[in-house]
């Protein structure tokens, strides 16, 4: 049985992501470190999500597909963690509450299994977010 589950999301830097950034943000190492969502095993069971399978994560501001992993961090049930980067940025609201800084922590997301959907690479994701599904910049006049 598969379900959609709503969790609070935090984005943050991870050691693996920091090391991978040194190889470049378009590298496989960075993709593997930043296109994942850390979830507690109990939440994965509730939603019918198997470890290391793709999930759709949707906030009020966007939707992405990433790989779900059992957390190695101190993520408790009800909380999920996504490393900062293009995948996390696609979910974060641009609204800053007059602080000049978006809210990267503690906002609700829906997570559901998406085993057959593809996790986009960083450049493909950014192009899609900027230009839509055709991923082409508008023609210049």
TrEMBL record:
One GO MF term attached to the UniProt entry: oxidoreductase activity
Domain Molybdopterin dinucleotide-binding: 7-107
Organism per entry: Methanospirillum purgamenti
This protein's name: Molybdopterin dinucleotide-binding protein
């Amino acid at each position: 049985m598969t379900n959609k589950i709503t969790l609070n999301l935090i984005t943050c830097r991870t050691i693996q992501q920091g090391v991978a950034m040194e190889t470049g943000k378009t590298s496989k190492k960075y993709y593997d470190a930043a296109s994942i969502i850390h979830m507690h095993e109990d939440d994965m069971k509730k939603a019918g999500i198997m470890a290391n399978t793709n999930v759709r994560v949707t906030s009020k501001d966007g939707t992405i597909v990433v790989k779900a992993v059992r957390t190695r961090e101190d993520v408790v049930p009800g909380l999920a963690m996504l490393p900062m980067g293009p995948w996390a940025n696609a979910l974060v609201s641009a609204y800053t509450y007059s602080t000049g800084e978006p809210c990267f922590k503690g906002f609700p997301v829906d997570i559901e299994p998406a085993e057959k959907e593809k996790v986009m690479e960083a450049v493909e994701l950014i192009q899609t977010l900027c230009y839509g599904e055709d991923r082409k910049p508008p023609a210049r006049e």
